[in-house]
TrEMBL record:
<keyword id="KW-0678">Repressor</keyword>
<dbReference type="InterPro" id="IPR000843">
    <property type="entry name" value="HTH_LacI"/>
</dbReference>
<keyword id="KW-0805">Transcription regulation</keyword>
<dbReference type="Pfam" id="PF00356">
    <property type="entry name" value="LacI"/>
</dbReference>
<keyword id="KW-0238">DNA-binding</keyword>
<feature type="domain" description="HTH lacI-type">
    <location>
        <begin position="1"/>
        <end position="58"/>
    </location>
</feature>
<dbReference type="InterPro" id="IPR001761">
    <property type="entry name" value="Peripla_BP/Lac1_sug-bd_dom"/>
</dbReference>
<dbReference type="Pfam" id="PF00532">
    <property type="entry name" value="Peripla_BP_1"/>
</dbReference>
<dbReference type="InterPro" id="IPR010982">
    <property type="entry name" value="Lambda_DNA-bd_dom_sf"/>
</dbReference>
<dbReference type="InterPro" id="IPR028082">
    <property type="entry name" value="Peripla_BP_I"/>
</dbReference>
<dbReference type="GO" id="GO:0003700">
    <property type="term" value="F:DNA-binding transcription factor activity"/>
</dbReference>
<dbReference type="GO" id="GO:0000976">
    <property type="term" value="F:transcription cis-regulatory region binding"/>
</dbReference>
<keyword id="KW-0804">Transcription</keyword>
<protein>
    <recommendedName>
        <fullName>HTH lacI-type domain-containing protein</fullName>
    </recommendedName>
</protein>
Length: 346
């Protein structure tokens, strides 16, 4: 007997049934009638929350739950799921996927339902790197955060893109091309307080950029903060810069900003890379359509999904045995070469 069975028999959603049976019906203003119906149905059907997972298991189910804030509407999320599916298959597991839309109540219900279905562990994924409020039901068994860090000091392993190394790689591309001055940042920086409020990736990219530029004696002449990393803001920031200065190189904190920067440079009669070199981050699909093709440091979404499953399978297989696994796993971000960086012209 599962939560889904109770919800179906009560004529309510799984989320509503979960809220009633976890004592949150009044808090979320669920009607008294719906609450009564769910509790009565649960009693009649003999449902007990967590009853499938409370006792010792006879063995593993060889299944993994994958809960993501976005699946259907994002190609990147699809790549993460594909990596997770392939890795699960290689290890003899099946993957169950659920999409929450970022709704905490749906996240909790999905994890709760997957636990009831006896999954051996759960991957809790975010499309964009963020600090996540981890549902408490995630602690009922092995779990891994993918592209997210716990908002509290929760002891859950995280699999993250290596954004610091990505910053180092982007800086090296420019330094090795001969750029050592008139380098400007578009999107954030140069200070750690000059980043978007959600900017985990921005802070790490800036850290790596600063490390390599400082070691090489390269001058970061300025930076333009952007409230959103969109083509419009990239255009506006670059156009404002060009009204007072002509840079030799632009480091755009993501590829959509770089797309906007390309347009502003073209309107100013400047060409990429002959007048201004440009490098971005993420390897967004738009990067391959820019002319010249944008040099960028890629987010390895497929590899992230596969890595998260490998970490989780390791937790499942050696559960309760041996040394603790690392809490942070960083996945390398490769450089995608393009024609947007060249030696500076004097």
């Amino acid at each position: 007997m599962t939560l889904a069975d109770v919800a179906a028999a009560s004529g309510v959603s799984v989320t509503t049934a979960s809220l009633v049976l976890t004592g949150r019906a009044r808090e979320l203003r669920i009607s008294t009638e719906a609450e009564r119906r769910v509790r009565s149905t649960a009693q009649q059907l003999g449902y007990r929350r967590g009853s499938l997972t409370a006792g010792p298991r006879a063995g593993r189910s060889q299944t993994i739950g994958f809960v993501s804030d976005t699946v259907a509407s994002s190609g990147w999320a699809g790549d993460m799921v594909k990596g997770a599916v392939d890795a699960a298959y290689r290890h003899g597991f099946m993957l169950f996927v659920g999409e929450s839309g970022g709704d905490p109540l749906v996240e909790r219900t999905l994890v709760d339902t997957m636990r009831e279905r006896r999954v051996d562990g759960v991957v809790f994924a975010s499309t964009h790197t963020r600090a996540a409020a981890v549902p408490d039901v995630l602690y009922d068994g092995p779990a891994v955060l993918l592209n997210a860090t716990p908002a509290t000091s929760a002891a859950v392993p995280s699999v993250l893109p290596d954004e610091v190394q990505a910053g180092r790689s982007a800086a090296r591309v420019l330094v090795e091309a001969g750029h050592d001055r008139d380098i400007h940042l578009i999107g954030a920086g140069p200070g750690m307080c000059d980043i978007p409020s959600h900017g985990i990736a921005a802070a790490d990219r800036l850290l790596g950029l600063r490390e390599v530029f400082t070691a090489a004696g390269a001058e970061v002449a300025g930076a333009r903060w952007c409230p959103k990393w969109t083509p419009e803001h990239g255009f506006e920031a670059t156009a404002a810069l060009l009204r007072t200065h002509r840079p030799k190189a632009l480091v755009c904190l993501n590829d959509r900003l770089a797309f906007g920067a390309y347009q502003a440079l073209a309107e100013a009669g400047l060409s990429v890379p002959h007048d201004v070199s440009v490098i971005g981050f993420e390897d967004h699909p738009i990067a391959s359509w820019m002319r010249p093709r944008l040099a960028t440091v890629a987010l390895p979404h497929y590899e992230l999904g596969a890595w998260a499953v490998r970490v989780l399978v390791d937790l499942v297989v050696r559960r309760g045995r041996g040394a603790r696994a690392p809490m942070i796993h960083r996945v390398p971000m490769p450089v995608r070469e393009g024609g947007s960086v060249a030696a500076p012209r004097e």
